[in-house]
Amino acid sequence: MNFDFTDDQRALADTVRRFVAKDYDFERRRAIRDSAAGWSRAVWQELAELGVLAIGIDEDHGGLGYGPLETGLAMNAFGAALLVEPYLAAAVVAPALIRRASSTDFQRHWLPRIASGENIVVFAHHDARGDPVRVADGALSGRKTVAAHADCADLLLVSARATDGSTRLFALAPTTPGVTLRSYPTLDGQRAADVQLDQAVATEVGAGDTATDATQAIDAALDIGLAALCAEAVGIMEATVAATVDYLKTRRQFGQPIGRFQALQHRMADMLLHQEQARSMSYLAAMHCANPDQVLRQRTLSAAKVTVGQACRFIAQNAVQLHGGMGMTDELILSHWFKRLTAIEMSFGDTDFHLQRFAAQLSRGARAA
Amino acid sequence: MDLDFSPEENAFREEVRKFVTDRLPSHIRHKVMNGIHLERNDHVLWQRTLHQRGWGGVGWPREFGGPGWTPTELYIFEEECAKGGAPRLISFGLKMIAPVLMAFGNPEQQARYLPKIMSAEEWWCQGYSEPGAGSDLASLKTRAVRDGDHYIVNGQKTWTTLGQYADWIFCLVRTDPEAKPQRGISFLLIDMKSPGVTVRPIITLDGAHEVNEVWLEDVRVPVANRIGEENQGWTYAKFLLGHERTNIAGIGIAKRELARLKRIAAAEGRLDDALFAARVAQIEIDLMALEITNLRVLSAEGAHQAPGPEASILKIKGSEIQQAIAELMMQAVGIAALPFHQTGIGPDYADNLAAGYCNLRKLSIFGGSNEIQKNIISQMIMGL
After folding, report:
1. What domains sit in chain B, N to C, each tagged with a CATH number?
2. Residue B307 pLDDT greater than 80, yes or no
3. Whole-angstrom Cα distance, residue B373 to residue B367?
4. pLDDT tier at A363, thresholds 50, 70, 90
5. DSSP assignment of A184-215, as one string?
């Protein structure tokens, strides 16, 4: 067993860390977040030049051919900077989905453009209640809701229910007649959109000989995304815990640093326990998120999301608590870490969803045994 | 033992309930029931409505124009107001400075300030915390130097809740820097319109403007605006903190929010989810226990006395319950809670659940953090 990273992997993480330290400080992020678009194409090009948009794309398609572990290292390094650009959606989930669900022609066209930053492709999956997206005669109708970063996409991938009950995957430009986007900021300062589709003509991805139900490909791509999300969460936890340690060392009350109080020391120790358990599970998630054995993969990823989700809550809440009123202020990045950790806990299935999915496998396993 | 309210108390409860139903403006009820931020005017309108009914001096004895309720009646009143969707009372005037004025103010001060608190003509805010003096309040540094009939005040207060609306601020200031920290503090009433007073907003993580910094720069304050004796301010401050802790459990608010949680969870179909339903059940059970604990504390209290260290139990559990409810409401709607300060995306009830969850993190921080409350319990109740 070996938990060390290779020199290559460390260099990759350092590249991202140097970028965020030098070119993506809290003030720049705030300015970008508050801009009309809420994200920066210039930053996206900087990321392309660094090569980090190509991490998860294979070499045949202009990528670096790395795997989930390297993606996780990048996500972890992005964590503390709270990137508002669509890295997870456009550089992790979308290429993973295209790789699994689309025809070779589609891959050959889009993957190099994603790797180079030329185009942004985003997957809109979550149906609005009462108005799920369905397909009839090649046209999509219905609404996708809270689709992360759908407003910056040049191409949308959209899941849709077919008349035969299968789930199909379609691609269409947001400028297609019948597509209406309502975009807005989310809790974490990132962007999302509701995508209203009204008889919008779309191309089925994987059309022709590969056209099949896309459920398995979608699940597999979302699992790649979930592992990356866990790695990001751990990066934010590290920053949050470190900032809280610093605060406890410098904030003085009753004639001493408040970090001298044992009650607070123990709380910090609990935060560290959560962080390290989450880190372990983020590694396990990275190692298993591309495993073709779906039962093992989902079991592992659910376990990871439960551990990470609980750590998100505990660390976020206690970091604010230990900062007192300061932790509540918009001025400190801490409250922005709090909000991103909160959003992460709620995304890709919340803690209770994954706890129940894991629990359901227990009874299935017992019946099988 | 008898855990039932008396017939008179039940009749009083009906009277309050009917009053709230009949007289609370529907736009205010709508805001409170749905966690929407209230404006200054919403609070003022409700306080005036209470005042017209003779209930303006909530918690006050008759001699100062209050309704002279027992602690149990006060509890019933606040519970019914909260459940009926009435705004939280603006406590800085009614529950903080008013009891201090009654106990330690001179007759001129009582006559000058108390009526306008009852009628909501004047809004008060609290000048206690400073950047370097939070949990350790006695280390406060704002200086007041005597200059004839005035004090010249310099310093900075912070976390001043709704200070942007305030006409007056009651302030702890240091008048004797040589004395032990608790001995050199005086209690001043400062007109917010005085030259040298600057209010700067602090925006919190939910995007709200509830708290402020208040800067005091060479502010001239008449000596007549001092409460009680010079350098005895700590005594009055502690007395005030005791009164701040009445209704600290927020049982009525928790019941209202629990009902909202159940409505949302039912609309989302989440009560059929055994794990989610168990989480809601756990909160309801905690709240049942806290309600009885609260009533036990009330029974032990004499009329109009401030609660003792037992109030810390109520503060900790009350804040935890309200925070847990906010957390579960957000969880109930899932990603529909993520759009921030938006309307018309998910169901209406989802609009401000995430902001509400963020905002209520304050409950375990302000009014004496829950860590400080645990110190009080372990030291004052348990003698450790």
Report:
1. 7-89 (no CATH), 124-232 (2.40.110.10), 245-381 (1.20.140.10)
2. no
3. 9
4. confident
5. EEBTTS-EEEEEEEEEEE-EETT-GGG----H
Give me the amino acid identity at A309.
G
Task: Give yes or no: B244 in active site.
Answer: yes
For chain A, what are the domain ranges?
Answer: 7-115, 121-210, 215-368
Q: Interior CA angle at A59 toward A235 and A102, to 5°?
A: 90
The CATH number assigned to the domain with range A7-115 reads: 1.10.540.10
Per-residue pLDDT tens over the stretch B139-176? 999 999 999 999 999 999 999 999 999 999 999 999 99
Judged by CB atoms closer than 8 Å, whether chains meet at A330 and B129 is answered as no
User: Which two tokens mark A361?
Assistant: 């496998």
Q: Which single residue is written with the structure tokens 């704002």? A: B142
The CATH homologous superfamily to which domain A215-368 belongs is Butyryl-CoA Dehydrogenase, subunit A, domain 3 (1.20.140.10)
Please tell me whether residue B283 adopts helix, strand or coil conformation: helix
Residue B244 C-alpha from the chain's centroid: 7
Residue A100's alpha-carbon distances to A153, A164, A210, A211, B305, in angstroms, are 20, 22, 10, 12, 70
Q: Hey, what amino acid is at B56?
A: G
Closest residue in B to A129 (Cα–Cα): B346
The 10 Å CB-count burial string (b at 16+, else e) for B156-178 is bbbbbbbbbbbebbbbbbbbeee
Of the residues B80, B210, B244, B268, only one is catalytic, namely B244
CB pairs under 8 A between A and B: 121
Residue with tokens 């529909």: B336
pLDDT at B247: 79
Other CB atoms within a 10 A radius of the CB of residue A337 amount to 26
**Can you give the pLDDT at residue B1?**
83
Distance CA B177, CA B288 (A): 48
Kindly give, in sequence order, each residue whose CB lies less than 8 Å from that of residue B267, ignoring residues fewer than 6 positions away.
Answer: B347, B349
- Is B327 in a helix, a strand, or coil? helix
Of B331, B336, B366, the CB nearest to A146: B336
What is the topology classification, in CATH, of domain A121-210? Butyryl-CoA Dehydrogenase, subunit A; domain 2 (2.40.110)
* Alpha-carbon span B192 to B198, nearest angstrom: 8
Residue A155: its H or E element? strand A155-161
CA of A113 to nearest chain B CA: how many angstroms apart?
30
User: Helix or strand or coil: residue B24?
Assistant: coil
User: Residue B304 — very low, low, confident or very high, per pLDDT cuts 50/70/90?
Assistant: low
Over 60: is that where the pLDDT of A209 sits? no
**A145·B374 Cβ contact <8 A:** no
The mean pLDDT value of chain B amounts to 95
ipTM of the complex: 0.96
Give contacts of B358 with chain A, Cβ < 8 Å: 187, 335, 338-339, 342
Comparing CA positions, the residue from B130, B94, B117 lying closest to residue B214 is B130
